[in-house]
Amino acid sequence: METPSLLHGIVVRSTGSWHDVETADGRIPSTIRGKFRLDQQDVTNPVAVGDQVSIQKNADGTGVIMEIKPRRNKLIRRAAGRRAGRAQVIVANVDFVWIMQSVNMPTPNPGFIDRVLVMAESFDIPAGIIFNKLDLLHPSVADNYAYLTDLYAGLGYPVLEVVATTGQGIDQVKAAFEGKTNVVAGPSGVGKSTLLNAVDPSLQLKTGEVSTRTLKGKHTTTFASLYPLPDGGYVVDTPGIREFGIREVEAWELSHFFVEFRPYLELCRFQPCTHDHEPDCGVKEAYLDDLISDERYYSYLNILHSIRLGTHDVGR
Ligand SMILES: Nc1nc2c(ncn2[C@@H]2O[C@H](COP(=O)(O)OP(=O)(O)OP(=O)(O)O)[C@@H](O)[C@H]2O)c(=O)[nH]1
Ligand SMILES: [Mg+2]
Ligand SMILES: [Zn+2]
Fold first, then answer.
1. Which residue puts its alpha carbon closest to atom 9 of ligand 1?
2. Where exactly are the structural domains of the chain?
3. Domain 251-309 has CATH 3.40.630.10
4. Which mutation among 194, 199, 200 tests ligand 1's pocket best, with the greatest number of atoms within 8 A of CB?
5. Closest CA to 269 of 258, 256, 257, 285
6. Is 124 or 309 the better-scoring residue by pLDDT?
């Protein structure tokens, strides 16, 4: 019997057992070979949005993913709940990670920002921060907000400020997205889908309310999806992340992913040094000399602690 030829494509949406693969023959809902699940038991999803795959087409128009091309990079986190401990691949093969936060409703969470930055740095993926809902910048939150924008801009990460509902700042977002594969990640309710609708109104993504009681979103987007952008490039909308646990980063290497710690790493007496209990530590000295912020040093210790415990706790 003749073996059918394989069709190449990219996974644009993944809902657990079904993966939509965009190919030259259109979008083909596909399953995966059981082998991939057996090969990758420490991962909740062997195939993720952004994966380059080869599929075999079935007579009924569905497909079977036969091959997953090696990934250039990936954004992963430690899965929570019943699958705790295993890695969940949020997206594969991205050029830029945008961490989205709202200035209010919900409140910014620097611990969360730092965790995603660590993951991005560990895979060498450039990252930036998008602050949304500038219209809700009330005096009570203004000081903290100014502190955060200064902190991250000072570390060299691009910081964009927008009002997704009015289009304020959207031109900068379009320019930043152009020609790249971008992923927008953040807690539920910060306005990720609203932002993408502002960038491309034809997307018509579903958006949801933020609870006035808990100040949290209602997990409106349930699966990651990749969309082509009108001016070239792609963007991945992702479901709101409750907890961002670090995976595949060892305690001894964590400090390399805090960009401002790097100049001090070789000043430590012990190599490697975890910069919490060791004497003559260059990083701790830098922290005591105010060259490293409280926020980032505590974030570092918090993540270090969670790596040692192997837990999947939230940012602070
Ligand atoms: N005031 C204000 N509200 C906004 C802004 N952007 C989005 N919202 C509102 O925030 C709520 C949540 O927006 P979504 O786009 O659904 O948030 P999301 O981040 O996609 O949330 P999940 O899909 O649950 O992860 C909606 O009620 C939006 O109208 C903004 O710039 N200002
Ligand atoms: Mg959404
Ligand atoms: Zn040290």
1. 191
2. 7-70, 75-237, 251-309
3. no
4. 194
5. 285
6. 124
What confidence tens digit (pLDDT) does each residue in 212-253 have? 888 899 999 999 999 999 999 999 999 999 888 899 999 999
Q: Which residue has the higher pLDDT, 40 or 112?
A: 112
Written as six digits, the tokens of 22 are 């965009």
Site residues for ligand 1, CB cut-off 6 Å: 132-133, 135-136, 163-165, 188-194, 207-210, 217-221, 239-240
Copy the structure tokens of residue 299.
């974030």
Q: Of all residues in the chain, what percent carry a pLDDT higher than 70?
A: 97
Residue 225 to residue 50: CA distance in whole angstroms: 9
Q: How far is the CA of 281 from the centre of ligand 2 (A)?
A: 43
Q: Which atom of ligand 1 is nearest to the CA of 190?
A: 19
If you measure from the C-alpha of residue 187 to the centroid of ligand 2, how many angstroms do you get, rounded to a whole number?
Answer: 9
Token couple for 198: 């502002």
pTM of the model: 0.95
For the CA of 163, the nearest ligand: 1
CATH fold of 7-70 reads OB fold (Dihydrolipoamide Acetyltransferase, E2P) (2.40.50)
CB 112 within 8 A of CB 77: no
Domain 75-237 has CATH 3.40.50.300: yes
For 48, the token pair is: 């993720």
